[in-house]
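agent> call fold_tool(seq_1)
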Amino acid sequence: MTSRTLRRRLHHGDVDGKRNEKYDASGFEGLSEPLLGSHEYSDRSSEVRTLEDIWDDERKKQQLHWTLLFSQLIAQWAQWIANIVFGSGALFGRLLPFSMTTHNGKNHRVAPPLSLVQEERLRNLKQRLEVPFDGSRVEHQDALKRLWRLAYPDRELPPLKSELWKDMGWQGTDPSTDFRGGGFVSLENLIFFAQKYPESFHRLLYKKDGQRAEWEYPFAVAGINISFMLVQMLDLQSGKPSSSAGIRFLELLENDELAFDNLFCIAFQLMDAQWLAKRASYMDFNDVLKSTRSQLERELELEDTSSVKELPAYNLLRR
């Protein structure tokens, strides 16, 4: 069965709830507004399901539900403690490692000085973010081919322009036209996901978990949107991150050079979990992405976490 969906641009407002706000990509030529649009996607043929398969799906849904619930409870508990601490007066304020300022109604933190390791890793990450995808570059073509081989090891590699790329969730026959939203780093994120967590990667690619909508999100383009969302959430388009999530990320980056890539994998898996929990369909994608961002921000506020892998949502990933 074939479904036709509507093309829609994902603005910054679609992520944080302000639809009139536009994203300033100054200095980041490789990152512009991502586009989650539509061409025709072919649904997978229906398979005969046994009673054991149905019960297995139900068990997985229950595990997913309780993992998400536990993650949200921890984040809410931490936020409650933080509210008590921040509202307790000047004494606690002097004990905090960084100060808080308010700008346009939003809290911004003044980060402590960066270590040499943090400076180097942040600089390297920013250099990655500045690289646009260029379909004429051989190394970018090779990376795209590599993603195909990781996704479909038993299938023949198609030409760089082919209807077969739609199977992976690209909008059309030429995947290079979709990268204007996330740049080359979004392709690197997808390759890292496929290599590091192949089971989760393939379960999301084939939409194996839960009861899926008739109109599902396109896998590859969703990955580009997630990369773009993370750049905004972590305030990486600025000279030095000043958002709470951005400063917390810098702390995690000191212990994990690939913190951004690992966080991408967590965000993708969490997004799919939110998708199933909300019984979402294609037109709900931006709302689900907004919920995913909010959950990640809450988890990044948790203390006693020294790496991305200690975030509660990391438990959703499978190798």
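agent> call fold_tool(seq_2)
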Amino acid sequence: SDRRLRTPCVKTLVHGDQRRLFNTSNSRMTIMPAWVIDRYGSNDVLRFTKNAGFPIINYPNEVVVQVHAAGLNPIDVSMRGGYGAATMAMKRDPLNINQSGSEFPLILGRDMSGVIMECGLDVASAYFKEGDEVWAAIPPWKQGSLAEFVVLSANEVSKKPKCLSHIEAAAVPYVAATAWSALVNTGGLNKDNCAKKRILILGGSGGVGTFSIQMLKAWGAHVTVTCSQNAERLVRGLGVDHVVDYTAGPVEVPLRALEKFDLVLDNVGGDTESWALGLLKPWCGAKYVTLVTPFLCNTDRLGIADGMLQTGVTVASKALKHLSKGVHYRWGMFAPNGLALDDISEMVDAGKIRAVVEEEFTFSQVPQAMLKVEKGHARGKTVVKISSGEDSSE
């Protein structure tokens, strides 16, 4: 579905006491504050700069958004260390024209809530116009949201829910798009077929888990989750029907005592595959969907061609193995989806889904925010309020 608008023009942006001209439709570039990395590594590779290149509209269906808040996810920590670098390089440069390392300086951050500043030629005003408050999940191969501005395809952007602040809104899009891809696109669930289905979420207190709980409960499903005891109050507050404490012993033991499930969503990985598929109803179309897959690790380790071949062999062999037992084995992948965010925005404004923000950081505290995410054991999302960066130093 195309989202189209009108001719871009030169605009004056006022930010605090700063005033600058920019034109996103040609090669004139200005600079902006951002957190970047110049190489892959640990948290010390993060660098604040006031001289990051201003994003330019290169395609007529793109929009430039001023970022008000950015949500952080585990993938940001992984990408900081180089995870998925080979696949992302292919997505950015399919013909392999640029030299290795051309992605630097790289801006991390997959979640964004902000205001549209400029629209490309093909973005229709029926969908978006300058000044609209929007949210988006940014694809990992694009420059991220830990910056004052970002450029996105209009198909990746959606109107922000009216009832959420930018801080709250920035906690939702990436986990929402990931959960939607896993549960709807891969798992086959929707608002019309979810009633009374039994769903198990392994790892229910993180970003994807807390969002999935709310969406599934809004659609009438029976939801069981695993989490630690100190997260039980959070997930029960989101409407969970049954909680299993993974700190009390081997989690598969109490789960096996329960009625079988129609779908298992695995946010944990590890050895869960060895027992989780046994919790599904056999020969009923039940699915195990895992978000912890070796796809990007394979391409990083073996290269694009061999990595994709290895991935195909792995998923096909596992799918056939479990199909013989009457259950379906699937991998879930993040996919940017502005249309899904449209539906989710309506659910948020209807009071069916709320943002779960665990902690808020300022723009100058991005390294601390990254360390928070890196420690794991999330109880919702970590969000950064984006400012002009005057309180940081180059």
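agent> summarizing second result for user.
The chain has two domains: 31-173+358-385, 187-331. Residues 270 and 292 are 8 Å apart (CA to CA).
agent> awaiting next instruction.
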